[in-house]
Design goal:
296 residues; Purple Acid Phosphatase, chain A, domain 2; alpha/beta; 7-stranded mixed β-sheet; globular; single chain
């Protein structure tokens, strides 16, 4: 969708971010801090996998930058932004607190958000449409470990490319884009999520989980994926008129648009174009009887 010029282009109506994976060394906490310091909104949805409980259970990793992200999110709520946290599979421990509020952050399993133009969007993480997570979590955990190794190799490889003056290249994105089963998994996942939105009678759906930012129409349902903050550093946003857009914070032009102080919106060296994530088999989910809440 086209970007609409507004009186205050750094103020958005809504931001959706997911898959931060705080608690892992691959989380792009500094990049995320740059984003949330420069971009304000009336609503902020944290669409799952904000914390990586799986990784923290294996090996505790927590830096000051991770703590700074949490503190910044809490301050965002205190300053008037309505913050809704929808836990994912990596932070499923928080699902038992659905319906409760921590400070100014409301925790929910899923919800419905109404855009400025009246369209209604179902917001959920999406892991319930992942067959391996539902039936073989041990295999998903193994895949997460393998993915971490891939990111480690990717980091070493790109250090060498940087020394040779070459641009960033993502091994995980390359594998995902070149593997037939991966492409089929993504396509199946998107159709299943869109079908859930159709069952709820809404106009579209916002999700995360597969770490692939996307905006597409699926048989009359608008499918919207926020991407991730491990490699690709993307967010879905709503402008004041209801226009939707995916922001790529690795793009210098995007950061310049939201820089009100002429500083290049921090971190001019932010890099990344990856689409990380595991590639499990998809099977149909069980029906979900609970109706999502409306966020107004």
């Amino acid at each position: 969708m086209p970007f609409s010029i507004e009186r205050n282009p750094t103020r958005l109506r809504t931001i959706w971010i997911s898959d931060l994976h705080l608690g892992t060394k691959h989380a792009r906490a500094d990049s995320l801090l740059s984003f949330i310091k420069n971009v304000d909104s009336d609503y902020l949805f944290l669409v799952g996998d904000i914390f990586d409980g799986w990784a923290l259970a294996r090996n505790w990793f927590w830096t000051q930058s991770h703590n700074d992200v949490v503190q910044k999110l809490l301050r965002t709520g205190r300053k008037g932004t309505r913050v809704v946290y929808i836990p994912g599979n990596h932070d499923e421990f928080a699902r038992e607190y659905a319906g409760l509020r921590f400070g100014e952050i409301l925790v929910e399993r899923d919800c419905i958000h109404t855009l400025a133009d009246g369209r209604r969007l179902l917001v959920l993480h999406g892991d319930e449409f992942d067959g391996i997570i539902r039936h073989a979590k041990w295999l998903q955990s193994l895949g997460a470990i393998a993915y971490g190794l891939t990111l480690g190799l990717n980091h070493v490889y790109n250090k060498a490319r940087q020394a040779m003056g070459r641009p960033y290249w993502s091994l995980s994105a390359y594998l995902k884009q070149r593997t037939k089963k991966a492409l089929q998994y993504i396509d199946d996942f998107e159709y299943l999520v869109a079908d859930r939105a159709r069952q709820e009678g809404v106009d579209g759906v916002v999700c995360g989980h597969i770490h692939k930012a996307e905006m597409r129409d699926i048989e009359g349902i608008q499918y919207l994926n926020t991407g991730d903050w491990v490699e690709s550093c993307t967010a879905l946003v709503e402008h004041m008129d209801g226009t939707l857009e995916i922001l790529d914070w690795t793009d210098a032009g995007t950061r310049a648009r939201f820089d009100s102080n002429g500083r290049g919106a921090d971190q001019t060296d932010i890099q990344g174009d990856g689409q990380p994530g595991s590639v499990p088999q998809v099977i149909l989910p069980n029906p979900v009887n609970a109706s999502p809440i409306e966020v107004n």
